Amino acid sequence: MTSPLPPSANRFGWLRDLRRIAFFMSKRLLALFVTVMIGVYLTIVIANMGGQVDELRELQIRSTISEQVRADPAFMQMPSEERSELIETQVLMEVQRRNLDQPFFVRSIDYLRQAAQLDLGRAEEMHSDTGAREVYDIIVERLPATLLLFGTANLLVFFVSVYAALYLSRRYGSRADRAVIALAPSSAAPAWFYGIFLILFFAFLAPVLPPGGMVDIPPPDSRWEYGLSVMRHMVLPVTAMFFSSIFISIYSWRTFFLIHSSEDYVEMARAKGLPASLIQGRYILRPTLSPIITSFALMLIGLWSGSIILEQVFNWPGLGSLLFQAIGYRDTPVIIGSVVVFAYLLAVTVFMLDILYAILDPRVRIEGGS
Known about the structure:
Blueprint: H1 7-47, H2 52-71, H3 80-97, H4 104-116, H5 135-169, H6 175-183, H7 191-205, H8 223-261, H9 264-271, H10 276-305, H11 307-313, H12 319-329, H13 332-360
């Protein structure tokens, strides 16, 4: 008969586990941070076209200051040489203020450092609804709209897919099962593709829903009316995202459930006479949650990347439409800031996926663990 371990051994075991968890999480965070920084730096180089945009910005600064000086009555009587010298002085001060007098490589590293600290600077052309020019304020104003829209759509797709896949796994070969298999290729079309047809039908042919925007204009004064207006405006974009991914999700996860429902331990549970709900919850759903969560996370990442066109189609005031407008204005700080936020959202998604693995699947072990 073995004797129980002393309390000190249990305590040291917990400390070792905590150290392993802290080391693993730190290593994952560092790897994700490096990946994000590489993506952000490439965005900086591309958005600046290797420094050409900064050269165009310097020409724009010179043109703007020249027009301001020549249009100012106080400098009308000034000799042309002194006026030119004044223009050159103001241009030099503005160029130095924006660090445009430094080589592009030095400026790109400085942009990267600021982006890592979320010190995103000031927008050059755009501003928030309150008139703020800080990129951080502009993004914070748009971020809740994107999280609301995509969070609602993703949660709806996830829970409907799981329950529908469980239902079809019990009715393999039924009409509903064959219908889902037939409709699975329809998920190849992106959400904005469905959005165009939904707008055409429900906003113009049968005008029962608004075609775009987030709230009625002018916005309702009552909170309840404001919330109902937002919900009405969410129906079409959420439906578009739902149709773009629901059938392939049900088909994929129903396949996972079918594979695991034929395992020996499931057959033994059925032979013991356990209730069908218990078998599906404990013996089928639980072992398949890890691949399901992985598939859902990949789908979530794909939806994040497709938000630019979708929000533009529905005129949804989120990060996607902000990035689209910033590209049109060539507002480099806003472009970089939007990409930084998207990159951090993707990194958080991947990091949470690692944590969910350990919670959902007890077979997952951290490196160095027994």
